[in-house]
Design a protein that fits this description.
By secondary structure, the protein is α/β, with parallel strands linked by helices. 21% of the residues lie in helices and 30% in strands. A hairpin with a 5-residue loop joins β8 and β9. It starts with 12 loop residues before the first strand and ends in a 15-residue tail after the last helix. The structure holds uridine-diphosphate-N-acetylglucosamine (UD1) and calcium ion. The site of uridine-diphosphate-N-acetylglucosamine has 27 residues, from β1, α3 and β10.
Length: 504
């Protein structure tokens, strides 16, 4: 799923300049991090805002930054969208912020002449889509209005600027909550903060703003009253989908918008052929890519740049971050990051795949297995209770239950190599650096300190010593002694019983 919109992939429109306001402190977040850097669906709020803007294809985008400027600038630069930054040191209101943006554009050599349309949006309104912005611009163009405000009808308009209309229904002003008269407070149509405005009029109107209001700020919203005074046409573009107009001011709203975005993403993926057993407990980041016929079981989180191929089944209770999952793979109750799982491979339950893990086609990482920087060839298996780090396990090899790769000598990490179709016994320790050759075997309990040549069997445990009759002689009167006595009396023959080889 990608951000779509009028200009996506096409040529840029020189007649549109976008200003994204993101200088506010976000005090109610009670955070050391700037508000717009808090994330939903794996992206900071500012990234959601700028990616939506990218979709309208404007030639110039300016972000106004202030609070937490260094980190916010870094996040914007990371997106690599060619956004110009304007710095607002002191937040003197939305009108002041827009003025700062225009000033910054004036300083860009060969900057835009600014005689087209300016689109103003906020960095903290993450659900707004490219399509909505494009619709607003289209409405603004076709009506020839000087100002077109994106508005919404809310059940609870508290805190928002209200859209004041005259008896004929024409918009005459935006009244801020703190400046509204009682009658105006009852108005449910609110200013989303997003608006399209004629650039020439905007410049003129900004120069006329005064901080004569309850907050002592320069309100961008006052340009509406000024346009009406000048006899210029003003209109509202009413958006039915009110979620798109919602901003984040505190952590509760962050969670609400995060859940709603997730609802939208899961719904979208289901419409594209993904089975999601329980969308309420399934979390999918914006950048994740899923193929049709993927199945997601309850409690699954797909994060970062995770990509899942067709037929794969994930979960329940699994978290994958930046994991590439091949077709028809199965991953159960697993935590994995920066890993590749081959087609048809099976992972878990209770596996922990750390960065650099690569599981070959039809390979297996089983129960209570931790891997790190480990490459398993096609069909290679580590089925039970193991740690495999800094290792290469050859195609078709089987690592016995309870194997520990001792990759760290206390100073540096070393590599271990297990050859193709090797079969190593249970409860082994591979002391790196060490190589076990193709087709080699190791016995149970082997501590492999030296290389094992191809086809060899290596064992390191000493000869077994058995002291017949030791228990009755030394532990007389115990249940063990009694059991031994009974066995001897009934003629049971211990030696003929098959030794059970743990692992497969
Ligand atoms: C603003 C609108 C209000 C609208 C509401 C929608 C004004 C005067 N009011 O009110 O009509 O209903 O948004 O959410 O425009 N910002 C700056 N620099 C500043 C001030 C603000 O960059 O000096 C940025 C903030 O970071 C934020 C956005 O502008 O992203 C809105 O600022 P905020 O203080 O939240 O405005 P509201 O009072 O909510
Ligand atoms: Ca706000």
């Amino acid at each position: 799923m990608t951000d779509t919109g009028a200009g996506a992939g096409g040529s840029l429109d020189p007649a549109v300049t976008v200003i994204v306001l993101a200088a506010g402190a976000g005090t109610r977040m009670k955070s050391t991090r700037a508000k717009v850097l808090h994330e939903i669906a794996g992206r900071p709020l500012i990234a959601h805002a700028l990616l939506a803007v990218r979709g309208v294809g404007a030639a110039t985008t300016v972000a106004v930054v202030g609070h937490g400027r260094e980190q916010v600038s870094a996040a914007i630069a990371d997106l690599d969208l060619g956004v110009i930054e304007a710095i607002q040191d002191e937040q003197r209101g939305t009108g002041h912020a827009v003025q700062i943006a225009l000033d910054a554009l004036g300083e860009v050599p060969d900057g835009p002449p600014l005689d087209g349309t300016v689109l103003v949006t906020y960095g903290d309104v993450p659900l707004l889509t490219s399509a909505t912005l494009a619709d607003l611009l289209e409405d603004h163009r076709t009506t020839g209005q000087s100002v077109t405000i994106l508005t919404a009808e809310l059940d609870d308009p508290d805190g928002y600027g209200r859209i004041v209309r005259d008896a004929d229904g024409f918009v005459v002003a935006i009244r801020e909550d703190q400046d509204a008269a009682d009658g105006e407070r009852a108005i449910c149509e609110v200013n989303s903060g997003v608006l399209a405005v004629d650039a020439k009029f905007l410049r003129d109107a900004l120069a006329r703003l005064a901080p004569s209001n309850a907050q002592g700020e320069l309100y961008l919203t006052d340009i509406v009253g000024l346009a009406v005074e000048d006899g210029l046409p003003v209109g509202a573009h009413v958006l039915e989908d009110v979620w798109q107009t919602q901003g984040v001011n505190d952590r509760a709203q962050l969670a609400q918008l995060g859940r709603e975005l997730n609802r939208r993403l899961t719904t979208q993926w289901m419409s594209e052929g993904v089975t999601i057993v329980d969308p309420n407990t399934t979390w999918i980041d914006s950048a994740v890519v899923l193929a049709p016929d993927v199945t997601l079981h309850p409690g699954t989180q797909l994060l970062g740049a995770t990509v899942v191929a067709s037929g794969a089944a994930i979960g329940p209770d699994t978290t994958l971050r930046n994991v590439e999952v091949g077709a028809d793979a199965t991953i159960v109750r697993t935590h994995a990051s920066d890993a590749v799982v081959g087609a048809g491979a099976t992972i878990g339950p209770f596996a922990y795949l750390r960065p650099g893990t690569e599981v070959g086609a039809d390979g297996k990482i089983g129960t209570f297995v931790e891997t790190k920087n480990a490459q398993l060839g096609a069909g290679a298996k580590v089925p039970h209770l193991s740690y495999v780090g800094d290792a290469e396990i050859g195609e078709g090899a089987n690592v016995g239950a309870g194997t520990i790769v001792a990759n760290y000598d206390g100073v540096s990490k070393h590599r271990t190599k297990v050859g193709r179709h090797a079969r190593t016994g249970s409860n082994n320790v591979f002391v790196a650096p060490v190589t076990i050759g193709d087709g080699a075997y190791t016995g149970g309990g082997t501590v492999v300190r030296e290389d094992v040549p191809p086809g060899a069997l290596a064992t390191s445990a000493g000869q077994q010593r058995t002291m017949e009759g030791w228990v009755p002689a030394n532990r007389a009167g115990t249940a063990a002694a009694a059991a031994a006595h009974d066995a001897v009396a009934s003629g049971a023959d211990v030696a003929s019983e098959q030794k059970d080889d743990a692992g497969e």
